Amino acid sequence: MPPLYNRRPDPGLSGPLPPAPLPLAELLVRVRQAVETRFAESYWVVAEIADLTPPRHEGGHCYLVLTDQHVTGRGAQLKAQARATIWSQRYQQLAPAFEEQTGQELQLGLKVMLRVQIKFHEQYGLSLDVLTIDPSYTVGDLARQRLATVRKLEAKGLLERQKRLSLALGPQRLAVISSPTAAGFQDFVQQLSESPYDFAVSLFPATMQGTEAPASILGALDAIRPRRATFDAVVIIRGGGAKTDLLAFDDYGLAAAVGAFPLPVLTGIGHERDEAVLDLAAHLALKTPTAVAAFLAERLARLDAVFNGYAERIHELARQQLTDAAELLQQAGRFVHRAAQGQLEEHRAELFQRIRQAATAPREQLRQQHRQLSRQRQGLRRAARRALTLQQQGLRTFGRRLAQRFRRLHRRRREQLLHRRYQLQLAAERLLHRATLRLAQLSTPALPEAAVLARYGYVQLITDHQEPENTLQAGDEVRLLLPQLTLAAQITDRTPHLAPALLPTASSASPE
């Protein structure tokens, strides 16, 4: 059998030739032989069941994934992991005995003490054959830590705080925390796109497994917090995986942040059999991203159906109310028609009564006025005759008085006229006498003849005034003597001017 490891060459000797490369199968056969030689006995080991696949049928085997966890301030961290198998016949004995002694079945999270035998197979690798189980270990470290985390969250009220938040009736504005390359995120988006509703998905990338996952998810929550008014809910999703890949979601800080987050948080981070602490602190925990998308679409569908039901109910109620209102309207119309006809008949009868009363009263008034008019006409005639008699008597009296007064006035005026005629005759005789005397006294030169005056552009003025230049006024009538005729004229204006030179007298102007 060739050595398993290369050896240094002895001093002074030429080095051996390098070993020829081994086929993988031969190498793994040597590993199996070494394991069987070195670890031939069975061992008691303490481990936590991180994954369990029970027999799917009678006679099947049970497959386990055993882990060894290291507890830190931020939770459990994986130190070692190995596959284990409980073969069918042994499982039929161990499982009932374990359940009978511990009161619970083999399940995830249990820390158990097992007696195992190390096996190595060239095709399946290292595994442990479970020979027996010590039921004294019923609770594993992962379960105790997880229980302590849950109790701490419960004491601070962070397990129920998210559940008291109201999820929007139609959550369509979603802040999704996931890995952009994760199949779970792609399934989530695909499921939403196949629904008839329009979702607004904003991705906040984060690392979803490993020791960096809690800090990365907390960073994504801090990025969402200032924009929480623009979202209806936060969705944390990842694809499935082993139990050990979900240890980050049992982190206390992450679960507390989710429990205190102001928006409802929906989770879909594991398989159906997994339930992380984060799921307990969230508003609603669903098993897979597809289940979260289906829940959102179904919620909108239910809301849509409710609205449709309301709409149909409203339509039905409105139609019933319209029918009732139409019937009431018809009844009211008939009632109004009958009432109107009744009132019309009453008003018509009242109108006829009033017409009769109105026709009777005027006739009676007319007869009374006719009688009064007859009496007044007779009275007027009598009054007229009396007034005429009185007027005739007054006229005769006035005529007699007027005749007497006229005779007295006529006699007085005749006496006055006779007195004035006497005075006038006396004055005329005096004036005639005075004029005769004046004519006798005056030696007035003879005026030139009219023909002579005409040759010099003058006419002779004939007036009764002795000094016409001083006595004639505007409006006085005079006569103008021309050679062949005499003109009657009226003075309209008086304008003084220098007197012309005296014309030669008729005796001096005529030739000798």
Automatic annotation (TrEMBL):
- Residues covered by the OB-fold nucleic acid binding domain: 24-133
* Keywords from the UniProt entry: Cytoplasm, Exonuclease, Hydrolase, Nuclease
Residues annotated as coiled-coil are none
- Indicate where this protein is primarily found: cytoplasm
EC number in record: 3.1.11.6
Recorded catalytic reaction(s): these are: Exonucleolytic cleavage in either 5'- to 3'- or 3'- to 5'-direction to yield nucleoside 5'-phosphates
Any GO CC annotation of this UniProt entry: cytoplasm
Residue ranges of domain Exonuclease VII large subunit C-terminal in the record: 158-463
Alphabetical GO biological process terms: DNA catabolic process
> Which N-terminal stretch is annotated as signal sequence?
none
User: Where does this protein reside within or beyond the cell?
Assistant: Cytoplasm
Provide the GO MF annotations for this entry: exodeoxyribonuclease VII activity; nucleic acid binding
Entry annotated with the keyword Protein biosynthesis: no
- Similarity remark: Belongs to the XseA family.
Protein name per UniProt: Exodeoxyribonuclease 7 large subunit
Q: Which organism is it from?
A: Hymenobacter cellulosilyticus
